[in-house]
Amino acid sequence: MLYTIILYTHILSAIVSMGPLFAIFPLLNRMKDAPSEQVGGYVQSIQGILRAIANGGHVVVPSGLLLIWFSGWSWKTSWVILTFIVMFASLFFMARAFKPAMTYAKSNGFVKENFISMIKNATWKYIFLMGILLWLMIVKPNFW
Ligand code: HEM
Prior knowledge:
Helices cover 84% and strands 0% of the residues. It is mainly α. The chain has one domain (2-139). Helix 2 packs antiparallel against helix 3 and helix 2 packs antiparallel against helix 5. The radius of gyration is 17 Å and the shape is elongated. The protein binds protoporphyrin IX containing FE. Protoporphyrin IX containing FE binds at residues 10-11, 14, 18, 60-61, 64-65, 67-68, 71, 73, 83-84, 87, 130, 133-134, 137-138.
């Protein structure tokens, strides 16, 4: 029962940390045609989405750790180790890709088109990383 609750929480937080990423694309499309006085609002919306993703990530990691603890999986299992590596890479990536774009949004030389392409690029890469994590979780491949 406890395990099921943790697994449910884990999957729910995985949805929260991935789902909002797909809301970024339609926002960017509208931002492209938006008048300059509305651009700030779009930047703020994207910031909110990124915060929601980060919150999901903060629950996915501890609940995942609890799942390993309560399940029979060993910390040395290859898919568990790879999950940690990819997870660490994605935290690093989050800081390297999205943060500069948000800092750029506040800079004086802000050009809307550059911001859109930075965010679009970062979003696709992040979806790819999360896709790898999802695959590792579901397939649980044995590499060695
Ligand atoms: C440090 C990060 C993580 C750890 C340690 C972790 C660990 C685990 C463990 C131990 C299970 C239970 C496996 C089982 O016995 O069935 C699980 C299930 C799952 N995890 Fe994670 N996880 C992490 C991150 C993620 C992320 C980022 C996602 C989404 C992208 C995710 C999505 C899922 C899903 C969908 C399941 C259910 C799969 C199933 O029951 O077959 N996890 N995770």
